[in-house]
């Protein structure tokens, strides 16, 4: 479902190759359809060794050395379109940490009339809970083996209209310039800005196994679109990020649109900035900034005389028509004498992986610019191996955007666990950013984004800061493969293979399909999405080549031409988005779907993937031949939970003892005003919240499968 605040851009006008025809040349379609001998993906890739179960478990924060279930034994949750939650038999799902819940005393509880001050959201849970991570804590310090007390870091992706007493209220000024014609109220914009960002809260487990918020904990803290944030890495201090706010380009004002999450191997939280475009506006200034800067802004979705989305934060005035920098900074029109007199570079200071140390509430959040600037979904590290680089995988979630990885220059030392942001400085400021190319023959390459390798036809990169700030332009020049909206990345702790959800792409036309993005159907493009996965050469995450296949094509089970993974009513899905390997190697898949919601609300599935190259070649309706993994079965893929109508199920983490699974319910009741899921008692306004799932016998989640 597309909403004005959930705008999905498609600014990739590059003519990067679609790898449509190569495989067709190599393998005749007719032979494939006949199931010709020797044409399985297994034959193409050869047998790949499985690593021992739990081989990497000790390197992931908090992993207990539990084996992965052999098969999924719970009873599948059926399709469901009601207003409540459904979880598998033998489990209980309970919501807490709702939108607006105060984190400290002295703040009134959430009110159904929503007349709280915007400032109060600096001390409340924000809106639209998304990625999150649980950090066990003992004696105020990170303890990866502690499950009964911990810090919880959680993203608040964006705000719904119903956050405000009058909804998305604007005043019309027909005489104003186009981007100022609709003006918002200062209090509403403050409420919006402070309900974005991250909450860090302390949680404690009660005797009944459920968690509760520790109100007034010294660790409870909000990071919002209004809090000072540091810029580190390649772009820190660069002219491209210098603004009136900081002429030295070392800090910026806020974080925005925190989507999926990640953790670092050393125990910090990695949040992301995804659809930051939504809150910016730009008037007429091409003549001032020049064609190159204009090209770069357009590549990130902000052309002259445009607003990136429906937020209009730049339009509010403080009082009596005085526009404060608090609001005007979201208008990046070059109006001042130099970049130090306005916010023309403000946009360049958003779109990063942001590191937060939940255990150090005095510290600021740090934007790790060396990992590139784009619509970051989440950030997943490869199993950390002593003496090897740290590798982070990332997707750029917009139509036709790319998949990236960052390989640190510094080599991993497990002694850095618990060293917080200092460890982040060591591993995230220096390294190489790569972008992925998926070849039609099931191989792929990583191409580095460096001054030596990037030669763009229309854009002259000045330095590495320019390359990371304009990573999309650099990736265009490298011939990266345009993907069907890369959402979450997850790395298997068993095989080391990397999985990425490609949620859907309404703009994927049949003639623009390629082997890695092979579906386009009934004028709706790739409507249901798929999950791609790859194995790095020799299992080395710093490698520059890999083998890939499509792990799973999502589709309604009865849509025969689209259902290429053999899905049944017990495990069919549309638009996979959230993705998480638990420390045992169980893959959890969440959906953010608008295409199958007449049949079922969004959901969470459990999966037991095998490995890249375990399937065969399939041919899609567009005639593309694609290696697909083993067909799904009742043993390997099953629906575990369905959320309330109108919601997205997103964000996922577990306690180290695997007895509590946390997920988030985002925007319950969207487009269904009758659904008041999460509302305060007697109220009508539905609220996003975290849901904790526990097993009724107090055991390990999916323990029945062992
Ligand atoms: Fe925030 Fe791409 O989901
Ligand atoms: Ca998402
Ligand atoms: Ca999504
Ligand atoms: Ca969403």
Structural commentary:
This protein is 9% helix and 27% strand. By secondary structure, it is mostly beta strands. The chain has one domain. Strand 19 and strand 20 form a beta hairpin. The longest helix has 14 residues. The protein is globular and about 65 Å long. The chain starts with 21 loop residues before the first helix and ends in an 11-residue tail after the last strand. About 7% of the residues have low confidence. Bound molecules: MU-OXO-diiron and calcium ion (CA) (3 copies). The site of one calcium ion has 4 residues, from loops. One calcium ion binds next to loops.
Summary, kept brief:
The protein is mainly beta and 706 residues long.
Q: Which small-molecule ligands are present, each listed once?
A: MU-OXO-diiron, calcium ion
Number of domains: 1
Report the β-strand fraction as a percent range. 25-35%
Largest sheet: 9 strands, antiparallel
Number of discrete helical segments: 9
Question: Given the C-alpha coordinates, what overall shape results?
Answer: globular
Largest sheet strand order: 19-20-22-23-24-29-28-27-26
Specify Rg, calculated over alpha carbons: 24 Å
Task: Classify the secondary structure makeup into a structural class.
Answer: mainly beta
State the separation between the terminal residues, measured CA to CA: 38 Å
In which range does the helix fraction lie? Answer: under 10%
Low-confidence runs of at least 5 consecutive residues: 17-63
Secondary structure tally: strands: 38
Mean pLDDT: 92
């Amino acid at each position: 479902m597309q909403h004005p605040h959930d705008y999905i851009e498609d600014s990739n006008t590059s003519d990067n190759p679609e790898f449509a025809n190569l495989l067709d040349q190599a393998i005749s379609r007719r032979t494939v359809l006949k199931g010709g001998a020797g044409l399985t993906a297994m034959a193409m890739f050869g047998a790949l060794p499985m690593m021992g179960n739990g081989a990497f478990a000790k390197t992931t924060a908090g992993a207990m050395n539990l084996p992965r279930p052999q098969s999924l034994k719970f009873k599948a949750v059926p399709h469901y379109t009601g207003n409540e939650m459904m979880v598998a038999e033998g489990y209980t799902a309970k919501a807490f940490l709702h939108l607006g819940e105060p984190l400290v005393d002295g703040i009134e509880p959430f009110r159904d009339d929503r007349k709280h001050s915007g400032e109060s959201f600096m001390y409340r849970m924000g809106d639209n809970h998304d990625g999150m991570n649980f950090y066990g804590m003992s004696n105020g310090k990170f303890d990866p083996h502690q499950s009964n007390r911990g810090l919880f870091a959680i993203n608040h992706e964006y705000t719904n209209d119903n956050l405000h007493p009058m909804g998305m209220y604007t005043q019309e000024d027909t005489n104003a310039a186009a981007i100022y014609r609709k003006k918002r109220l200062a209090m509403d914009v403050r409420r919006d800005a402070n309900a974005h960002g991250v909450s860090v809260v302390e949680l404690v487990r009660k005797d009944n196994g459920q968690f509760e918020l520790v109100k007034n904990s010294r660790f409870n803290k909000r990071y919002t679109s209004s809090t000072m944030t540091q810029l580190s890495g390649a772009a820190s201090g660069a002219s491209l990020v210098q603004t009136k706010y900081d002429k030295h380009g070392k800090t910026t004002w806020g974080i925005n649109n925190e989507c999926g999450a990640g953790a670092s191997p050393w125990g910090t939280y990695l949040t992301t900035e995804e659809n930051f475009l939504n809150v910016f506006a730009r008037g007429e200034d091409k003549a001032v900034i020049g064609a190159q800067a204009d090209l770069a802004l357009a590549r990130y979705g902000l052309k002259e005389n445009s607003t990136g989305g429906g937020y209009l934060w730049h339009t509010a005035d403080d009082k009596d028509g005085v526009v404060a920098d608090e609001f005007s900074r979201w208008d990046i029109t070059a109006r001042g004498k130099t970049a130090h007199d306005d916010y023309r570079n403000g946009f360049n200071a958003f779109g990063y992986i942001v590191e937060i140390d939940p255990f150090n509430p005095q510290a600021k959040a740090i934007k790790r610019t060396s990992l590139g600037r784009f619509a970051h979904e989440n950030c997943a590290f490869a199993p950390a191996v002593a003496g090897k680089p740290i590798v982070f995988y990332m997707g750029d979630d917009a139509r036709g955007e790319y998949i990236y990885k960052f390989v640190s220059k510094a080599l991993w030392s497990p002694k850095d666990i618990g060293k917080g942001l200092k460890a982040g400085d060591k591993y995230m400021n220096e390294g190489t950013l790569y972008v992925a190319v998926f070849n039609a023959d099931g191989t792929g390459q990583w191409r580095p984004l460096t001054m030596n390798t990037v030669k763009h036809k229309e854009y002259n990169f000045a330095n590495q800061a320019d390359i990371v700030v304009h990573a999309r332009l650099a990736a265009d020049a490298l011939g990266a493969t345009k993907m069907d909206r890369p959402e979450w990345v997850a790395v298997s702790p068993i095989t080391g293979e990397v999985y990425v959800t490609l949620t859907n792409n309404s703009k994927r036309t049949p003639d623009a399909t390629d082997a890695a993005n092979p579906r386009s159907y009934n004028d709706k493009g790739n409507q249901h999405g798929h999950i791609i996965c790859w194995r790095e050469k020799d299992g080395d995450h710093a490698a520059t080549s890999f083998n890939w296949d499509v792990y799973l094509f999502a589709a309604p089970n009865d849509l025969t031409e689209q259902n290429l993974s053999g899905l049944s009513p017990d495990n069919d899905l549309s638009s996979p988005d959230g993705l998480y390997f638990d420390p045992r190697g169980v893959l959890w898949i969440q959906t953010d779907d608008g295409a199958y919601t007449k049949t079922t609300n969004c959901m969470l599935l459990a999966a037991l993937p095998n490995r890249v190259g375990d399937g065969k070649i399939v041919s899609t309706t567009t005639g593309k031949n694609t290696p697909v993994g083993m067909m799904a079965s009742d043993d390997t893929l099953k629906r575990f939970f369905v959320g309330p109508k109108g919601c997205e199920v997103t964000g996922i983490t577990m306690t180290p003892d695997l007895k509590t699974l946390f997920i988030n319910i985002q925007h319950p009741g969207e487009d269904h005003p009758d659904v008041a899921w999460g509302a305060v008692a007697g109220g009508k306004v539905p609220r996003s919240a975290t849901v904790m799932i526990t097993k009724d016998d107090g055991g390990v989640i999916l323990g029945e499968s062992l």
